[in-house]
């Protein structure tokens, strides 16, 4: 959502994740304390961030704070499905690819050159924009 190059790793083999992190210069973000004990991590060859909180909003605040990310970096410039950078799409070329009522209302579209998904600033986009805003707000203090 924020426009950062991110890769979801869902295979069970951590060794493969280490290889990819090294080859691509990625920081591993994990909830797995065991992963943090791997030699590649303790030696500093692979950068890894252990998330201690299970709540997504707190996790995002930790990631943004610790990695010094900006939540307004390049929002909505990458495909949410496959991580590829999006391109602006001509409205005339996508009439058949979006619902008619969307096509009527929306003027600007982004397209993924890899998986072909089309994105526009609809209600889902507005909900995500609010999420990005929430990431930047300081945590609420329930005691006050
Ligand atoms: Zn895509």
Mean pLDDT: 90
What is the rounded distance between the termini? Answer: 32 Å
Radius of gyration: 18 Å
Enumerate the distinct ligands: zinc ion
Write the layout of secondary structure elements.
Layout (H helix, E strand, L loop, with lengths): L13 H11 L3 E3 L8 H4 L5 E3 L5 H11 L20 E3 L10 H6 L3 E3 L6 E3 L2 H14 L8
Parallel strand pairs: 1-2
Antiparallel strand pairs: 3-4, 4-5
Helix pairs in contact: 3-5
Bound molecules: zinc ion (ZN).
Describe this structure in words.
This protein has 144 residues and is an alpha+beta fold. The protein has two domains: 1-74, no CATH class; 76-139, N-terminal domain of TfIIb (Single Sheet). Helix content is 32%, strand content 10%. The protein is built from five helices and five strands; from the N terminus they run αβαβαβαββα. It has helices at residues 14-24, 39-42, 56-66, 100-105, 123-136; strands at residues 28-30, 48-50, 87-89, 109-111, 118-120. The protein has a three-stranded antiparallel sheet, with no helix packed on it. α3 (56-66) crosses α5 (123-136). The longest helix is centred in the C-terminal third of the chain and has 14 residues, at 123-136. It starts with 13 loop residues before the first helix and ends in an 8-residue tail after the last helix. Residues 79, 81-82, 84, 112, 114-115, 117 line the site of zinc ion.
Could you list some keywords that capture this structure?
three-stranded antiparallel sheet; alpha+beta; globular; two-stranded parallel sheet; binds zinc ion; 5 helices; N-terminal domain of TfIIb; 144 residues
């Amino acid at each position: 959502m924020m426009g950062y190059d991110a890769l979801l790793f869902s295979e069970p083999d951590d060794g493969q994740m280490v290889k990819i992190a090294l080859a691509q210069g990625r920081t591993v973000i994990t909830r797995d304390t065991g992963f943090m004990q791997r030699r590649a991590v303790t030696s500093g060859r692979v950068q890894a961030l252990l998330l201690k909180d299970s709540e997504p909003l707190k996790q995002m605040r930790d990631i943004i704070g610790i990695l010094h990310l900006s939540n307004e970096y390049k929002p909505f410039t990458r495909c949410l499905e496959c991580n590829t950078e999006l391109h602006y799409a001509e409205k005339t070329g996508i009439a058949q690819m979006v619902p008619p009522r969307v096509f009527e209302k929306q003027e600007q579209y982004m397209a993924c050159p890899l998986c072909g998904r089309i994105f526009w600033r609809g209600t889902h986009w507005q909900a995500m924009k609010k999420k990005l805003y929430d990431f930047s707000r300081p945590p609420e203090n329930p005691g006050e």
